[in-house]
Amino acid sequence: MNHDGTGAGRAAIRVPRPERPHAERIAALRQARLTAAPAHLPSEHEQAAFELGLVVALVLGAPEASRGLDLLVNARRIQPEGAEVFGALLHATGRVESAEFWWRFAAGSGSGTAAYCLHLHHLTLGETDDADYWRAWSDQLAATERPPGPGPLRMNRPLLPDEVRRDILSRVHHGLAPQLPAALVAVIDRLPGQGGGEDEVPSPWGLTSGAASAFAADPARERARGLGEAGDPCG
Length: 235
What we know:
By secondary structure, the protein is mainly α. It contains 10 helices and 2 strands.
């Protein structure tokens, strides 16, 4: 492991900076917010937290999640799909700032889903200017034709065990933040970090080839906290 927290021979990560979307697009989004139909939750940040939890649950439960994470760990260049999935894993362990880092990387590399996660993340914090920026960037990516991605890798199982995926979806539908059980949080806790100090961000390089197996094979029998517990959807 190098002093910067990256794997041996791997360059330090630099988050790509997407071009600033047109001001007209951001202005249109702000106007749309003013005229939008009422959300089903009391406040905008609560609605955004609910939607972000749902997106995270869908990203982690997607059939291609294990493939994306494995590409992030093993490909010669970092794949935005894998950074998007890794950010979702970090969000589900309560590492909100670290999730933001990896979503920024994924969005700057072309992931519209990661850009939309950032839009919702900033809305939960009441940071509407940043939220509008990332929503505009997400829309711009959606309208841009992307080149074909890398060929598929063989994966025999999903990223997370069925029970864990069901628990995450159930929590979200009950208005709670997505959460991984303790056994899987421990997998994240053991990963090396980069940045150092309080700002250290977990790195996926500690996962071995077939990264999904680190999560799917873990005996995660501990269920997520009871759905009857009171909780803040913002985590």
